[in-house]
Amino acid sequence: MKLDGISAFVAIAEAGSISEAARRLRLSKSVVSDRLAQLERRLGASLVHRSTRKLSLTEDGLAFLELASESLRRLDTAVAALAERRGTLAGPLRISAPVSLTNLHIGPALYPFLLRHPEIELTLELDDRRIDAQAEGFDGVVRHGPMHDSRLMAWRLARSRRVLVASQDYLERHGTPRTLNELDGHRGIFYTHRGIGDWRFVTAQKVVQVRGKVALRVNNGMVMRDAASAGLGITLLPLFLAGPDIRAGTLRVVEVGAAPEPEFIYVAHPEGRHPSAKLRALADCLRAAFGDPPYWEAGL
């Protein structure tokens, strides 16, 4: 049984399509399809339901997938272990990370890391949505915020202070809120991937939700920052995004007598899957590059 056929099947199952599996494997669609067909002939079983609308696994495919995926992971671990014995980090590493955080901070930290470890084959996919690391085949997921998925094990990389900010022009036109009650009536710029457009603050007694008027809902932090700078409304941003604009005076911090809920930047991996030395080294690299407290908080 050829290993490339098993790899093709697992990639198809994780990607949900032959086309996406081919993209991830850096092969043509026809090659991946042929490898799947050869594997099915070798096993004497159909593994995939094929249709023009969607792809799904047969009962045999579901039964074979679990053991095939585990076998590939064990093989990758064995190869990586041999590389580590030689004092090197090598092999594929697939990571998901947020768009804005990567553009501003993760990317600049990763480039020297990859130069030091040229045998690592890093696939970095930028996406702000919440990722199912297990189902989508990621070795690790870098995220900013609280942890919700109990199937993930997380390593903290840095704290992430968030502040309410607005432009001077907006505050002159609409007034500067001083309390949570005053904040409630203001126009807000909200992040869509957090669900409803609420701001959550910690007071001495409890966590308080404030729901402002929606001026804009968007799924990108840099657009939120720019919209606030343009005077569209008040927004709640991490300092890794808002710091330079606060220093430059483009944005002003709005104090309302309560702090936003604490959040962190973290890297997570699926529970039950032994994290590779490559993932641990990458996490250590990011942790060292960010610092404690993180460098983007300097002077604020």
TrEMBL record:
Gene3D superfamilies: 3.40.190.290, Winged helix-like DNA-binding domain superfamily/Winged helix DNA-binding domain (1.10.10.10). The keyword Nucleotide-binding does not apply. Pfam families: HTH_1 (PF00126), LysR_substrate (PF03466). It comes from the Bacteria. InterPro entries: LysR-type_TF_proteobact-type, LysR_HTH_N, LysR_subst-bd, WH-like_DNA-bd_sf, WH_DNA-bd_sf. Residues 1-58 form the HTH lysR-type domain. One of its GO terms (molecular function) is sequence-specific DNA binding. GO terms for biological process: DNA-templated transcription. CDD domains: PBP2_CrgA_like (cd08422). The keyword Ribonucleoprotein does not apply. Keywords: DNA-binding, Transcription, Transcription regulation. Belongs to the LysR transcriptional regulatory family. This is LysR family transcriptional regulator. It comes from Ancylobacter pratisalsi.
